[in-house]
Give the backbone structure.
Amino acid sequence: MDFSKLYRPSALNSFQFIALTGLLMSAGAHLILHFFVGHTPEGFSWLYVCWTAFYILGTLKNVFGKPDTHHHHHH
């Protein structure tokens, strides 16, 4: 198993990339809300669960799925 598909940016698929971006943006929003607003909305932490699940699904697709084939358009 190629573990670089878990962390190397060039080896991530779109699901993993979106999930990591979502995790980072949610963490940033969490900090801003905590320090500048003083509280976070109820259920905000569920975002982390969703992004993590999205990352795990993307990882399973990346590791066990068939390699993406380039789409060729024939005329």
Q: What stands out?
A: Helices lie at 14-37, 46-64.
